[in-house]
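Listing S7. Sequence submitted for prediction.
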Amino acid sequence: MFQFGEKRQVKTFHGETVEVGESALHVQCAWRLSQGDRVITGNGDLYDPVVIQSGKSNPNFDWKKQPTRVDELMQSLFENGTRQFIVQRVEVGVAASLCIHLEREFILQIFPNYSGSDEYWRFLKPGKDEPHFVVTGNGIEI
């Protein structure tokens, strides 16, 4: 999930208070954040622990419960939530792909890499009772 805009507090379905952006992009397909020729992080980093020990996988690692490489790299880049990057432009491409160009030449690329009819990504306003813009293998749903 990627957050955009001013931060605000909302209640979750479980009654917890969390900080969110004005808008959010929920991604269920391949993505990466790059700068120039360098990949900063991507969805493949979700399945690796913060520290990778000499190239060996850890069979006990649970990416849903433990910090991942994505967590570490994003916290570093966004300086634990104190740093923001302004969106400069958005490009919608073929086959439901999306590129969000940020300042300092960062690019968030969303690129569905499977042919099913499942949801690829959605754009929404967290905590607001408004329709979501949903992109699936079958097209756009609102």
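Caption to Listing S7: primary sequence and predicted structure tokens for the chain studied. Residues 37 and 81 are 25 Å apart (CA to CA). The radius of gyration is 16 Å.
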